[in-house]
């Protein structure tokens, strides 16, 4: 370690010898630790591509889960409002979103809610295939799930004068639930409700409409068929004049 | 090729991936660096500072350029580690004041040839105790000169002072240590 230094103020060697005697070296554990660190640092650093990849995969998975959950919850709400098109249903959905607190305080925006309450209490599991208590959605503010108690919504939307027809409409529900979503939206629409929500609902072709009317006749539901036929004639007068035959209606 | 150059080559070999070169390099400077750090910081912190110093050597191996001797580079790192330690602990542990009159008197004797007396454990202990009583700047300069083998210019660069200041500190440190050891001096 000695080197020539023209400016050396004094020789190093005597001091080095004296200092070397008086002091020890590092412990063996420290030696081993430092040598191990030196070797560890020489090891090739692995390609750490998996870290951003796993983060991206987690993000995509989380988005998929959230989207699937939202899809489950939003679909029935959209269908119900489209089908009924009644302010009472809208009010009820708002009421559910507000939670049980708004219920109890009597500050619900829905005037029809108290009317629907008794029917809700009378509901039995056989009507829906599950109990309200099982779903936990009635007071959770999330609305009914797919295949939920649609007749409840219908009952809450109808006027007192329509009560006589509600039973008839209610019996249609299981059949309508099996149909595709678009058919369920269009086919389950009563004439009165269809008139109210016509701008929002998808237009039915007269051929499809007429076929459904004939089906109602075949099933013996003449009163309903006549209402539908009347609505069809109003909507498509030219088409009805050409194609609706009296013989088909008997 | 001197020792310093050989160490620089070892460091370059280690940077290229030769682990045995590091072992050799470590063996060359292990004791000297340990003594330097042990006398610069308190004993309890010696191990931590020593490991920190070598960790920095390992971490900066790819940035090492043999523009100066390896020992200069190593002891500059060690000096910085000691300064960091004192900065963190908030104290400098050693006496800063110097008895200028006594130092000046002893400095006159510092240029004398060392006596050829046999070394003894007692004198080594007295030297260690005297080193601890030195002002920090003088002790740093002395240890960099003796243990690190740095030149006056290198000490000046490492400690951030002018060469004249570094040389003066060295002379004062040697004078005080001679005085502590008695008439015999280090030899």
Task: Explain how this protein is built.
The complex is a heterodimer of chains A (250) and B (187). Chain A has 250 residues and is an all-alpha fold. Chain A has a domain at 70-166. Chain A contains 16 helices and no strands. Chain A has helices at 13-22, 28-42, 50-84, 87-98, 100-105, 113-122, 125-128, 132-135, 150-157, 163-170, 173-178, 181-187, 191-196, 206-218, 222-235, 237-243. In chain A, helix 4 packs across helix 9, helix 14 runs antiparallel to helix 15 (222-235) and helix 15 (222-235) packs across helix 16. The longest helix of chain A has 35 residues, at 50-84. Chain B is mainly α and 187 residues long. Helices cover 72% and strands 0% of the residues of chain B. In chain B, helix 2 (19-40) crosses helix 4 (70-89), helix 3 (43-59) crosses helix 4 and helix 7 (136-146) crosses helix 8. Chain B is built from nine helices and no strands. The relative contact order of chain B is 0.13. The model of chain B is unreliable at 93-119 (pLDDT under 50). Chain B folds into two domains: 3-89, RNA polymerase sigma factor, region 2, helix turn helix motif (Rna Polymerase Sigma Factor, Chain: A, Orthogonal Bundle); 100-181, Winged helix-like DNA-binding domain superfamily/Winged helix DNA-binding domain (Arc Repressor Mutant, subunit A, Orthogonal Bundle). The interface between A and B is large, with 34 and 54 residues.
Give a brief description.
Chain A is mainly alpha-helical and 250 residues long. Chain A has helices spanning 13-22, 28-42, 50-84, 87-98, 100-105, 113-122, 125-128, 132-135, 150-157, 163-170, 173-178, 181-187, 191-196, 206-218, 222-235, 237-243. The longest helix of chain A is centred in the N-terminal third of the chain and has 35 residues, at 50-84.
